[in-house]
């Protein structure tokens, strides 16, 4: 294993998750620099976490520090340009969601990956918990029978004060509402578990918050394996919960959590009178209890860097998710069912997830 030099760009609240993960893996990675446009904030953050160098300009940091890995924890509208800068500077990237705000941007990031030989990964930590990893294997092996029906709900609460932060609630800076900024984790996990999606029909609306973007979205999705799924994303729900339900031929699997999970957040149920000990044994054979976290994802990312391999959750791996989110917005705007892969260059939704909605506000 190598020990890598890492830098953090953006030192707001979410950067706390990144520095915690980096410190927990300090034998494998050293944090050499931090960047923020607010001088006082980056200085305070760096001194608090023992980071030796801090900057207010990302380009200067990249030129002087030559990090192997850059963590990007800025508002969404800055992600794309910082990813491109970092890749071109020879660094791998771990970026907060959403990675970017259009399929066009994602495809360009993929081109720069090929040119630089480095990879960009999106923070989708739900994929990396031990129970999620094990569950994925069981699905692939059809250990619970065929999957049939899925439910994915991100019902959270964000009040008016939350949207007083200038970059929130706007197409140009946040890139969308709960579809892009909140439910994205659960939806990515849902799609990753169930496989290739085929088509989606959706509604979005702004029911109660004074914002440009939606505050709720609902979608119905059909997968290529014929699984049918329903999805709800909301920031209007006082009792907050992230909930999944997966119905298989031989069992129901449920997950109830909020921002992360451990093995204890899952529930396994078999049909009454048709319990199968072999199926239950497969579900219970997991011993590791790794939470879904930035640390879990970072650990696997460092493994991939050690082996010079493309990491899980990099651009090609997450493109189906961004295609799906974009298709939700297009379906809601056009009142049409949208097929996977149908949004291509020349389509306004290819250039931005909002399509023509951004120009209407």
Element layout with pairings:
Layout: E1 4-9, H1 15-24, E2 29-35, H2 39-49, E3 53-55, H3 58-65, E4 69-72, H4 79-88, E5 92-95, H5 103-116, E6 120-122, H6 130-140, E7 147-157, H7 178-181, H8 184-194, E8 197-205, E9 216-223, E10 228-234, E11 236-248, E12 252-257, E13 266-269, H9 277-284, H10 294-306, H11 315-334, E14 338-339, H12 348-351, H13 357-360
Parallel strand pairs: 1-2, 1-4, 2-3, 4-5, 5-6, 7-10
Antiparallel strand pairs: 7-11, 8-9, 8-14, 9-10, 11-12, 12-13
Helix pairs in contact: 1-10, 4-5, 5-11, 8-11
Describe the model.
Residues 5-121 form the Gfo/Idh/MocA-like oxidoreductase N-terminal domain. GO terms for molecular function: nucleotide binding. InterPro entries: Gfo/Idh/MocA-like_OxRdtase_N, Gfo/Idh/MocA_Oxidoreductase, GFO_IDH_MocA-like_dom, NAD(P)-bd_dom_sf. This is Oxidoreductase. Residues 134-253 form the GFO/IDH/MocA-like oxidoreductase domain. It is built from 13 helices and 14 strands. The mean pLDDT is 97. The strands form 2 sheets. An 8-stranded mixed β-sheet has the order 13-12-11-7-10-9-8-14, with helices on one face. It has a 6-stranded parallel β-sheet with strand order 3-2-1-4-5-6, with helices on both faces. It is 35% helix and 24% strand. It has helices spanning 15-24, 39-49, 58-65, 79-88, 103-116, 130-140, 178-181, 184-194, 277-284, 294-306, 315-334, 348-351, 357-360, and strands at residues 4-9, 29-35, 53-55, 69-72, 92-95, 120-122, 147-157, 197-205, 216-223, 228-234, 236-248, 252-257, 266-269, 338-339. β1, α1 (15-24) and β2 (29-35) form a beta-alpha-beta unit. It is globular and about 65 Å long. The protein has 2 domains: 4-122, Rossmann fold (3-Layer(aba) Sandwich); 126-294, Dihydrodipicolinate Reductase, domain 2. With 361 residues, the protein is α/β, with parallel strands linked by helices.
